[in-house]
Amino acid sequence: MNEKVETIKKELENSLKKVNDMKSLNDVRVEYLGKKGKVTELSTHMKDLDNNQKKEFGKILNNLRKSVENSLESLKVKIEEEELNKRLEAESIDVTLPGNKLHVGSIHPLNKIIKEVEDLFISMGYDVAEGPEIETDLYNFELLNLPAGHPARDAQDSFYINDELLLRSQTSPVQIRTMLANKEKTPIRIICPGKVYRKDNDDATHSHEFHQIEGLVVDKDISMNHLKGTLEAMAHHLFGEDVQIRFRPSYFPFTEPSFEVDLTCFKCEGKGCSMCKGTGWIEVLGAGMVHPQVLKNCGYDPEKYTGFAFGVGVERIAMLKYEISDIRDFYTNNTKFLEQFNKFESGEENESK
Ligand code: DAH
User: Cα of 99 to ligand 1 centre, how many Å?
Assistant: First the structure.
């Protein structure tokens, strides 16, 4: 019996030498381990043996089966590897074929402006604050020195939800929220970008929904100089180092004094062109020193603390910077329009600054 086993092992060795692909490997598997295979065949001799021999022979058979399986398995791994290598060699890539163009999105121009402004102010130690878009009349108007019936409320015809709640018409209520949350803790240095809503009829320059970035600083000894320096830094960051700013007296109920802030026209550099309507200046934002009453409303003693605030329209900045003539372009999700801003993503623009 042992001889038979040895013969089978030898025969197997020879058969395996001839194997060169999966098919011939399988044939060998069937020849030895199949139902009528050589190894299976051997086990039919069991019945002729006595118990002791059966035990002995069982072991031998088992070992034989295992060794055949092992040999087949290692050969299988080898063949698979060879076949894979052959396939890889055959599948060389033609790098000259035209590729499929991937449709890559771009950061929305409004988000781009917001991010640029955030980056600057974060670098100057400001926090980025948030407030709800559904706001109370108290925070949106009352505590900002705009009591019911105040004429300046008309300029911000608002979407009221009920007597007390409205869609915020400005980001200024975040000033109130921040001061109330800090309870005379200073310094306060925040900006707050966000959406605001007004009952405007949509046209090329008006939208019932738009974005503002609010700024607020409160501390001891904050002066107009700080305000001017800060706004200058923002103007330079957004429009380049050559831009100059000027303050024009204006009126906002929550600041005193209040200003409208102009930049020298960055298209004609102040000479006068169609963009600045021949004046050389472009109005970009509102600002001022926080009104003592507003400080008081929020628990800050105006004898001890002063502050400045500003509010800038993001659409306005984006329209000026990218020379966009219709505000509705920001909201219609026309990919042809949005794709233009990919080029601003590549860093070309920042490097040239
Ligand atoms: N909230 C004002 C508006 O929507 C903009 C503004 C002006 C904000 C002056 C300010 C400020 O913080 O000081 O028209």
Answer: 51
What is the average pLDDT across 14-41? 89
For 108, the token pair is: 């929305």
How many Cα atoms within 13 Å fall on the side-chain side of residue 68?
A: 29
Residues, the chain, total?
Answer: 353
Q: Please indicate whether residue 264, judged by its CB atom, sits closer than 6 Å to ligand 1.
A: no
Kindly report, residue by residue over 244-286, the tens digit of the pLDDT: 999 999 999 999 999 999 999 988 888 999 888 999 999 999 9
The SS3 call for residue 134 is strand
Q: Ligand 1 centre and the CA of 287: distance in Å?
A: 6
Instruction: Find out whether the peptide bond into 292 is cis, omega within 30 degrees of 0.
Output: no
Q: For residues 9 and 42, is the Cβ–Cβ distance under 8 A?
A: no
Interatomic CA distance for residues 21 and 267, integer angstroms: 74
Per-residue pLDDT reduced to its tens digit, 222-234: 999 999 999 999 9
Name, in order, each residue with C-beta under 8 angstroms of 206's C-beta and a sequence gap of 6 or more: 200, 327
**Rounded mean pLDDT of 309-337?**
94
What number of other Cβ atoms are within 10 A of residue 240's Cβ? 11
Spacing, Cα 286 to ligand 1 middle (Å)? 5
Whole-angstrom distance, CA of residue 290 vs CA of residue 222: 10
What are the helix (H) ranges across 141-242?
A: 173-182, 224-239
Residue 119's pLDDT band, with cuts at 50, 70 and 90, is very high
